[in-house]
């Protein structure tokens, strides 16, 4: 007969009963502990909360509530939010409420940092928020410290997410962190403030921009972008700052906030009138939509500043790509597109999808009976598809470049072999289509397009402009099926073979930075020296091949250029070249440095050839000097002895022979040398 637990049971008896598979035995042990809770059994009771029997779990929760041990916090929080039985959730929540919050607080922090259950994290954060537990907040912030180790600006996501869930109560402590000397604390605080999105963080973040280093400025910009619409007024005011770097940060942030910033940017552009700045034009080109086209076009045609005009052209191209069919002033839009065709070139700061969209617009404009306009728009459309592929290899642009390019070739070429070339190209494209999940649809449409081309080739009087709509219609039908057409969609290239070339490029760049440093040292320009050293560090990081963030390098170069004693036109040109770095990479950095060295009249430091430069000649050490001295003494001694032998130089003493080998001594005495 089974003996069930009673108040006389202690120690191992109760432990074994709690672990028993017999539900009644286990329940009896729990009831005993409900009468006299004991910390000795907390760990076992916590395990019992996972029992398959709901009544066991309920009674275990009640017992833990009466025991009031903070050790049970994580388990009670879990079952309060995640247990499958609503009664167990209710009793687990009641049990947690019985605990002393001050003792439970460290375990709530542990939940925030270690749990991967979002409901538990929200529960713990809610408790800390309701109690306004600044001590718990400070414990989370302590995780941001680098603790003497270089950890860069990387975010501690567990702490960040915990503070984000707590929310409002963390803003003031996080704002104080912006003054920390530990850059990791600053960066994590800015990241968290951006994620929380509280308006109170905006002005303090803006205020810290001026004294922040390059990387921290980037983090603050990201935070303001995340806060979003509420940041717009402060960022608009920053556009009037005298610091060019801060103005560009404001413009970039407003551009990334997007359409919400359009109205404020347009108002600012109108206020400036003819004195429109590059920064605001750039921001409108990304954040603006159809309403921005006409004001930007007015700036484009009226500005005397070449740099502003260039940025206006880029911005108008972006807006035309996204909103051409909604622009009310279609005449101006068409006039601009006519002019844009000549300006299009590789790496014009237009993204691959913008170029692709422009290509389609030009193709639509080609549907006209005017042969000259037809041909001009077709050529520009194909050019856009070409440039789109340069920015990123994408299936639709490759297909459209081939089909519309073939149409143009057939229209203009008089070669009897032209059709063979076109058929060969389309056959190659069909092979690619065989690997597509939409190959049936693609091959059907390709055959339709090829049939039109073959018909045009056979009919020398073919009406290319009149039949173009049908041809373009088949191309448009193909577009939705091209998503997985090619396997080269990912712009990232594997490292390996290209790495040595990159390393060689970086080596040349470091030589040019050294040349700049020498010129700054002569002029005692401490700030430019600091920027050049920071640039050198960034270039070294890029040399690893796994780091492709060029923003810091761009910032360093802008700072150096702003301090150079060169004409404003040259500075503007350099700023434009610097902005191309994010697209062109290492080669663009080298181009910018070459231009800077030319402007500063400094020649890069040449690599020294072995055995040529004096600085490369190895200086003799002490041992070498001693060896040379001994050799000289021996030579002198031999000469003197020889001269003595021939009675040319008499010696004032006789050479001792007692320390010599006897046979050697006899030989010397016999020779008359000594």
Automatic annotation (TrEMBL):
The record ties this protein, via InterPro entries, to:
ARM-like, ARM-type_fold, PBS_lyase_HEAT
Gene Ontology terms for molecular function: oxidoreductase activity
List keywords of the entry alphabetically: Membrane, Transmembrane, Transmembrane helix
Q: Which SUPFAM superfamilies match?
A: ARM repeat (SSF48371)
SMART domains this protein is in? EZ_HEAT (SM00567)
Q: Where are the transmembrane segments?
A: 625-644
Task: Extract the Gene3D superfamilies matched here.
Answer: Leucine-rich Repeat Variant (1.25.10.10)
Q: What PANTHER family does this protein map onto?
A: DEOXYHYPUSINE HYDROXYLASE, PBS LYASE HEAT-LIKE PROTEIN
Protein name per the record: HEAT repeat domain-containing protein
Q: Which organism is it from?
A: Methanocella paludicola (strain DSM 17711 / JCM 13418 / NBRC 101707 / SANAE)
What lineage does the source organism belong to? Answer: Archaea, Methanobacteriati, Methanobacteriota, Stenosarchaea group, Methanomicrobia
């Amino acid at each position: 007969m089974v003996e069930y637990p009673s108040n006389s049971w202690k120690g191992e008896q109760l432990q074994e009963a709690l672990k028993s598979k017999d539900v009644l035995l286990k329940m009896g042990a729990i009831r005993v502990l409900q009468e006299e809770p004991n910390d000795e059994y907390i760990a076992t009771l916590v395990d019992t909360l996972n029992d398959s029997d709901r009544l066991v779990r309920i009674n275990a929760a009640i017992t833990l509530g009466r025991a009031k041990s903070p050790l049970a916090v994580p388990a009670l929080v879990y079952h309060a939010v995640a247990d499958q039985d609503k009664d167990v959730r209710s009793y687990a929540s009641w049990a947690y409420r019985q605990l002393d919050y001050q003792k439970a607080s460290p375990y709530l922090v542990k939940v925030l940092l270690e749990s991967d259950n979002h409901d538990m994290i929200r529960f713990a954060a809610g408790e800390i928020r309701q109690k306004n537990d600044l001590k718990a907040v400070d414990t989370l912030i302590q995780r941001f410290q680098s603790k003497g180790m270089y950890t860069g600006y990387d975010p501690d996501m567990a702490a960040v997410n915990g503070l984000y869930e707590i929310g409002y109560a963390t803003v003031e402590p996080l704002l104080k962190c912006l003054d920390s000397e530990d850059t990791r604390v600053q960066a994590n605080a800015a990241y968290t403030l951006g994620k929380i999105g509280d308006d109170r963080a905006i002005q303090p973040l803006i205020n810290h921009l001026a004294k922040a280093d390059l990387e921290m400025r980037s983090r603050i910009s990201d935070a303001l972008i995340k806060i979003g619409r509420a940041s717009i007024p402060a960022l608009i005011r920053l556009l009037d700052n005298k610091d060019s770097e801060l103005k560009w940060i404001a413009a970039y942030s407003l551009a990334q906030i997007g359409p919400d910033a359009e109205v404020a940017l347009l108002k600012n552009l109108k206020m400036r009138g003819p004195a429109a700045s590059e920064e605001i034009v750039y921001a409108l080109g990304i954040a603006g939509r159809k309403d921005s086209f006409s004001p930007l076009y007015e700036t484009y045609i009226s500005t005397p500043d070449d740099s502003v005009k260039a940025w206006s052209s880029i911005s108008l191209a972006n807006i035309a790509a996204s909103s051409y069919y909604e622009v009310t002033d279609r005449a101006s839009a068409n006039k601009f597109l006519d002019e844009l065709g000549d300006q299009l070139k590789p790496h014009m700061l237009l993204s691959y999808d913008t170029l692709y969209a422009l290509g389609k617009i030009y193709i639509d404009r080609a549907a006209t009976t005017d042969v000259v306009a037809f041909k001009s728009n077709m050529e520009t459309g194909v050019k856009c598809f070409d440039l789109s592929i340069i920015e990123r290899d994408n299936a639709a642009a490759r297909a459209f470049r081939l089909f519309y390019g073939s149409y143009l070739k057939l229209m203009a070429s008089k070669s009897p072999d032209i059709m063979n070339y076109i058929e060969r190209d389309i056959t190659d494209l069909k092979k690619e289509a065989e690997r597509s999940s939409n190959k049936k649809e693609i091959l059907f449409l390709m055959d339709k397009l090829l049939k039109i081309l073959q018909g045009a080739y056979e009919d020398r009087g073919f009406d290319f402009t009149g039949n173009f709509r049908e041809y373009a219609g088949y191309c448009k039908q193909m577009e939705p099926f091209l998503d997985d057409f090619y396997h080269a969609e990912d712009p990232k290239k594997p490292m390996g073979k290209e790495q040595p070339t990159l390393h060689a490029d970086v080596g040349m760049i470091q030589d040019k930075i050294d040349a700049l440093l020498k010129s700054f040292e002569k002029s005692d320009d401490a700030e430019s020296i600091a920027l050049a050293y920071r640039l050198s560090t960034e270039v070294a990081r890029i040399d690893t091949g796994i780091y492709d963030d060029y923003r810091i390098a761009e910032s360093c170069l802008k700072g150096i250029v702003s301090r150079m004693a060169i004409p404003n036109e040259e500075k503007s040109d350099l700023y434009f070249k610097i902005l191309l770095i994010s697209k062109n990479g290492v080669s663009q950095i080298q181009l910018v440095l070459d231009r800077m060295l030319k402007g500063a009249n400094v020649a890069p430091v040449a690599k020294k050839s072995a055995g040529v430069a004096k600085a490369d000649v190895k200086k003799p050490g002490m041992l070498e000097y001693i060896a040379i001295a001994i050799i000289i003494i021996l030579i002198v001694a031999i000469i003197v002895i020889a001269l003595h032998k021939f009675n040319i130089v008499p010696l004032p003493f006789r050479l001792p022979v007692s320390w010599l080998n006897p046979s050697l001594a006899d030989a010397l005495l016999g020779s008359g040398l000594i």
